[in-house]
Amino acid sequence: MTLALETTDLKVQLRLADGWFTACDLSALVPGRGVAALLPDGRQVALFRDRTGRLYAVGNRDPFTGAAVLSRGLTGTHQGRPFVASPLLKQRFDLISGQCLDDEAVRVAAYEVRASPHQSAPVRTT
Amino acid sequence: MSTDTRTDTPTIVLVGHGMVGQRFLEALAERGLTATHRVVVLCEEPRPAYDRVALTSYFSGRTPEDLSMTDMRFIEDHGIELYTGDPAESIDRAAKQVTARSGRVFGYDTLVLATGSYPFVPPVPNKDAEGCFVYRTIEDLLAIEEYAKTRARTGAVVGGGLLGLEAAGALKGLGMDTHIVEFAPRLMPVQVDEGGGAALLRTIEGMGLSVHTGTGTQEIVTGAEGAVTGMKLSDGSELAVDMVVFSAGVRPRDQLARDCGLAVGERGGISVDERCRTVGDPHVFAIGECALAADGRVYGLVAPGYEQAETAAAAIAADEGEQLTFTGADLSTKLKLLGVDVASFGDAHGTAEDCLDVVYSDSRAGLYKKLVIGRDGTLLGGILVGDAETYGTLRALTGSVPPIAPESLVLPAGADSGAQLGPSALPDEAIICSCHNVSKGAIRGAVGEHRCTTVPEVKKCTKAGTGCGSCVKVLGQLVDAELEASGIEVDKGLCGCFAQTREELYEIVLALRITSYQDLLDRHGREDARGGDGCETCKPAVGSIIASLAPAIGASGYVLDGEQAALQDTNDHFLANLQKNGSYSVVPRIPGGEIAPEKLIVIGEIARDFGLYTKITGGQRIDMFGARVEQLPLIWARLVDAGFESGHAYGKALRTVKSCVGSTWCRYGVQDSVRMAIDLELRYRGLRSPHKLKSAVSGCARECAEAQSKDFGVIATSNGWNLYVGGNGGATPRHADLLAQDLSDAELVRLIDRFLMFYIRTADRLERTSTWLERIPGGLDHVRDVVVHDSLGICDELEQMMRAHVAHYRDEWAETIDDPEKLARFVSFVNAPDTPDPVVAFVPERDQIKPDLPLLSIGIRPSDTAADVLEGSAQR
Ligand code: SRM
Ligand SMILES: Cc1cc2nc3c(=O)[nH]c(=O)nc-3n(C[C@H](O)[C@H](O)[C@H](O)COP(=O)(O)OP(=O)(O)OC[C@H]3O[C@@H](n4cnc5c(N)ncnc54)[C@H](O)[C@@H]3O)c2cc1C
Ligand code: SF4
Ligand code: FES
Known about the structure:
The complex is a heterodimer.
Chain A: E1 11-16, E2 19-25, E3 34-38, E4 44-49, E5 55-59, E6 74-78, E7 81-85, E8 92-94, E9 110-111, E10 113-116
Antiparallel strand pairs in A: 1-2, 1-10, 3-4, 4-5, 5-9, 6-7, 7-8
Chain B: E1 11-15, H1 19-30, H2 33-36, E2 38-43, H3 64-67, H4 72-77, E3 81-84, E4 88-92, E5 97-100, E6 105-107, E7 110-113, E8 117-119, E9 132-134, H5 138-150, E10 154-158, H6 162-173, E11 177-182, H7 194-206, E12 210-213, E13 217-222, E14 228-233, E15 238-240, E16 243-246, E17 250-252, H8 255-259, E18 270-271, E19 277-278, E20 281-286, E21 291-292, H9 302-317, E22 333-337, E23 340-346, E24 356-362, E25 367-373, E26 379-385, H10 391-397, H11 406-410, E27 431-433, E28 438-439, H12 440-448, H13 455-462, H14 472-485, H15 502-512, H16 517-524, H17 538-553, H18 564-567, H19 570-574, E29 577-578, E30 584-586, H20 597-610, E31 613-616, E32 622-627, H21 632-641, E33 654-659, H22 673-684, E34 693-698, E35 712-717, E36 720-725, E37 737-743, H23 745-762, H24 769-775, H25 779-787, H26 795-808, H27 812-817, H28 820-823, E38 842-845, E39 848-851, H29 853-857, H30 870-874
Helix pairs in contact in B: 1-9, 12-14, 15-17, 17-26, 23-26
Bound molecules: siroheme, flavin-adenine dinucleotide, iron/sulfur cluster and FE2/S2 (inorganic) cluster.
The site of FE2/S2 (inorganic) cluster (FES) has 11 residues of chain B, from loops.
């Protein structure tokens, strides 16, 4: 399917291998809450915005359960670092590095993310 | 008549299964004697040992079963032969045999008499008339209650001592005009002095009881039918009363011993030596209230009796390492009589030579506190009336020189005394629990060596606090102090963001009307958490507090409004329960479990149309599983349309009120349990609380709705409803406690209103009512004081809050499907609202669906960030 062109001012974009990808309007992100976006290759990403307006993006899939639900977890600050807690079994993941804080061996993808006035080209998903 | 076949096993016969008798059996078991001996118990009362000390709590809702101290499993496991309703009638010491009323004869090697006391009834004319009672056994109480309910409006208690006041409180509680007649010039003459008596008198008169001190009972006056109509007093006056309860002291039950020639004291009591052996017969022991101890005294309290039980068991075990002796005991007592704290300890009357008194008295407030201090500053004893907060500490300090000035120990808290005396000031030998003789050192050991970290653990480990309960407060302080000292941080804070407990945050939010989490975090959070994003522990907890208090603080009661949305766990955020594959379950409310066929059909149709898995839940309703997030609004639009509301299966809120079919259909039902269950479910639906709340209503005592396993459970009686609280199924099941009996509909609802609001106010995060009730100081009694007797004066406020909740309730799902902005959140992908999450897929099972688990298990632990394992499956 083709994604509709966005019309609002600021867009949330993340960097993929081939450039910046526009995920959604900034206004779609409630501070402290996440949303999931679908990437062109079928992967899923969880996007967050904290109370100061900073944006974060990590893989949406919870490595402990396999469900794609990290975007639905609660966020917080632990020793100054932002994290999201999986809504299933509550493991915490650092939002900047994707590192699981409860299990050193586990990590999810972390993406560079920005709010930008520029529109990128519409992308096709499957 | 049967004669006991004597075996080779040595036999111990215990006569009397009261509190001390039971303790003696436990002491035998602990020493392994039940394994090596045959143990026979003759019990006069129709029921095994129960908590006589707490007898009066029968009138505040405890049943005879609640009062029981006898675990029948203990009796069986130790092979103890217990004969209830079969008293010993004679003892043949030469043949070493006891004959019971039933005719059974038991041979013994060791005989233990624990026959207790009988109430002394002064020899006044007509003392046995109909309407005259004593106050000692459960049977006495049942008889008093029956008579008071059917035949009496005014009652008199003869005796203004400890037990007399308890009896008077019971009569008052039964709704009678109550008189107390005391021969001595003051109430509780044994425990308190003149000043204390005066404070007590004012308070008790203030409660509407009539007290007549300095006068005796001369005669009971009876009417034509021989029943009580009044009593004549020695001061010439006459009282018109319909019943009389004698509580003029007790006398040891030593007749059995006298009849077989054992030595008894001049004023009664079976003479025993320091090891509780009767004087003159080494095979016979006497313990408890029937014994005249080696120090020449008969003890009328349970703690010395327990000590004697241990002493006798040790002597029988002939354990040389454990040469216990009983040479006297502490007569300290603390009571809550008619809601007044009264305590006395040590040398309360100042009989020691040259001692001094420190007295604080405020007659307006009904306070009187006296300490007796020796010349060298040693604390010798004291009396506390009206406020016995410091009792535990002071009792333990008795016999030592307190580390701070005595005056500061009796000044009321908050007065400018400056000094606070914590239990840390106590020496290790100080006895904290006198019921079980547990020293401070033993409690420290429980924390230090046995790694107990909570009061309930310490109670279990040491028995401290499991008797009269008066030491529990000090115990709590001590455990905290000890944990702190051993480096185990007792940070009671909610989480890393807040140093306050949930209860404290509740009070802050209420008092300052804080409606924003960020506000609360920035102003009241821990220093380093301020300005941050909080955490997944405090966000939902604070969200729940704000939701509970919404009407009172002016917040929106709708959990998805504004910042509130960001605080909710995912279940509350999507108003559904997250399942293992990222799909959700949907549970509409079915109040009381009652549902009409049309509605059942609607649920069936919806489940069929959306391909959902359906299951009847344990909560008498229907759960539909496997909904994708974007289907939730579509499903709910149809449910709301058919008249369904959210069932809050996702929230820390009221879940279900289960019902049994009750009097409408069931041949046994005595009330309409279905109607009451529906009423309660509709009243409390949507109420956010520290943990989930469950309830049930049964139509009769057969209890088909399992109300006693619920946070609040209701069981119909022929007179109304009994209310049980603090029940729990789950991992740690707990039977609910009876809070109040025979309530009308309105009384029931009012009491539940208060109970729930008090729980919501004071419980910890994720603390069910069962654990809350176990944790809070004073437990059930305290809760009953607060919600039944309004001891904190907050009941109006609690009821008001519940009324506000009821008035403001709106269905969350109806509100959500009316709000396009909120609905926009119900998508799998923000950038592809019509695309379903490909991980949420199903396979068939038993004619329905289940999550496609292999799909989930692919690459559980991605080794690096680049290759997101979802790829493969997402492309399918
Ligand atoms: C659906 C149901 C099982 C069923 O198929 O019957 C169920 C399902 C869940 N129970 Fe339950 N419980 C269900 C009845 C019970 C009962 C029986 C009852 O209510 O009569 C109990 C024991 C009674 C009690 O609570 O005292 C029960 C004791 C628990 C506990 C343990 C609570 C405790 O205090 O020990 C948990 C865990 C918790 O809440 O922390 C739990 C938690 C859960 C959760 C919420 C676990 C979770 O977070 O995913 C389950 C999700 C439900 C869902 O997705 O819809 N469930 N659960 C029942 C729903 C009842 C309803 O209509 O609302
Ligand atoms: C209302 C009330 C409040 C009290 N409050 C307190 C308090 O706050 N603190 C405190 O320390 N104490 C209190 N007491 C006193 C306390 O209950 C007693 O000290 C304690 O029960 C004594 O235990 P016991 O086993 O010696 O006697 P009991 O508990 O009286 O037991 C004796 C048992 O022996 C049975 N018996 C007697 N003769 C025979 C026989 N021939 N054959 C078989 N059985 C026989 C009796 O029926 C009875 O069941 C209170 C008592 C009452 C009544
Ligand atoms: S609890 Fe009583 S009224 Fe209800 S169904 Fe069972 S037997 Fe009938
Ligand atoms: S002093 Fe009675 S239980 Fe501890």
